[in-house]
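Support request from a user on the community tier.

User writes: "When I paste my structure tokens into the form, the page sometimes reloads and wipes my input. The last time it worked, I copied everything first. Here is what I submitted, just in case something in the input itself triggers the reload:"
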């Protein structure tokens, strides 16, 4: 799941940066993104990660699963180093080690247990949350730059967090009939679609760093709290301190890694750092990602990465 989400982060943000910026809460953005091969491969990776995450929520507490979803950013950073020849500063090595340590602590502290039923009140709350998130997204889309990335990324995280809450009891459905007739399934789909749209809009605002950091923070914390309070998420007795430290270390490492895991193709970055029109820089990066995603030979990827592509030291 972590690997799948890491690949999806990289490829989808490449496609978002190559798509015309949307200034309205328009689902048509998803259709435009679907016209990019890079986005479709990234979406396939995200679907794979989503399925694996869904299956893991059947027995694992949300504080572990959601932190692991966010940890996919560590894979994004490593892919940037291996495939796109990003530099590997000492700070990034330290953050990756902290990320591994945090996830390990969560694994050691999490006690597997089936979820409790959410109940009618919980379903109504999820439905209201969907309406509120969509309404806030309608207004937040008018923001530009880093504030827009943070606002839309946070709303995307809340939507994905609500989807995780719906998925935890849904994963324990006893049969396919019960699964397909459960209202939680449609709440899960609704929150996921809204979250995907909000994330695409956030990435177009010029800062993947801000968008992903806000999404990860907003996506992990609420689900972890709801899981512990309402869904029978458990921690091994005496290891509560380990779970708390592991969760905080993982989240801090993920937020820190967003600075290094940002794919180097965004419009504002290319203007400020490289000084050439965005398509001239974005195309080699996207081509490299598409070769990697398609499993093509290494030589074209190396050629794309050798066109002067490197990690900028200045952010616009």
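"...and here is what came back when it finally went through:"
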């Amino acid at each position: 799941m972590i690997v799948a989400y890491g690949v999806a982060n990289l490829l989808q943000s490449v496609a978002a940066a190559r798509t015309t910026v949307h200034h309205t809460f328009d689902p048509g953005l998803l259709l435009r993104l679907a016209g990019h091969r890079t986005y479709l491969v990234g979406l396939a990776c995200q679907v794979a990660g989503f399925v694996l995450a869904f299956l893991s929520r059947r027995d694992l507490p949300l504080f572990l699963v959601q932190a692991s979803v966010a940890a996919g950013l560590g894979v994004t950073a490593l892919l940037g180093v291996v495939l796109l020849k990003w530099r590997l500063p000492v700070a990034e090595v330290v953050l990756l080690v902290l990320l591994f340590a945090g996830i390990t602590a969560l694994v050691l502290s999490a006690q597997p247990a089936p979820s409790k039923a959410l109940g009618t009140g919980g379903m109504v709350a999820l439905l209201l949350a969907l309406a509120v998130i969509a309404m806030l997204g309608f207004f937040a889309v008018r923001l530009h730059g880093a504030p827009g990335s943070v606002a839309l990324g946070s709303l995307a995280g809340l939507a994905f967090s609500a989807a995780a809450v719906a998925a935890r009891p849904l994963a324990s459905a006893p049969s396919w009939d019960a699964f397909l007739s459960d209202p939680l399934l449609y709440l899960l789909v609704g929150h996921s679609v809204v979250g995907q749209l909000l994330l695409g809009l956030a990435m177009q605002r010029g800062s993947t760093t801000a968008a992903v950091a806000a999404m990860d923070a907003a996506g992990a914390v609420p689900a972890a709290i709801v899981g512990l309070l309402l869904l029978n998420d458990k921690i091994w007795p005496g290891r509560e301190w380990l779970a708390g430290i592991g969760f905080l270390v993982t989240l801090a490492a993920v937020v820190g890694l967003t600075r290094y895991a940002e794919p180097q193709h965004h419009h504002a970055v290319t203007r400020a750092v490289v000084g050439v029109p965005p398509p001239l820089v974005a195309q080699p990066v996207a081509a490299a990602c598409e070769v990697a995603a398609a499993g093509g030979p290494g030589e074209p990827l190396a050629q794309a990465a050798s066109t002067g592509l490197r990690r900028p030291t200045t952010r616009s």
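Agent notes: The reload is a front-end session timeout and is unrelated to the input. The two ends are 32 Å apart (CA to CA). The first strand starts at residue 110 and ends at 111. Escalated to web team.
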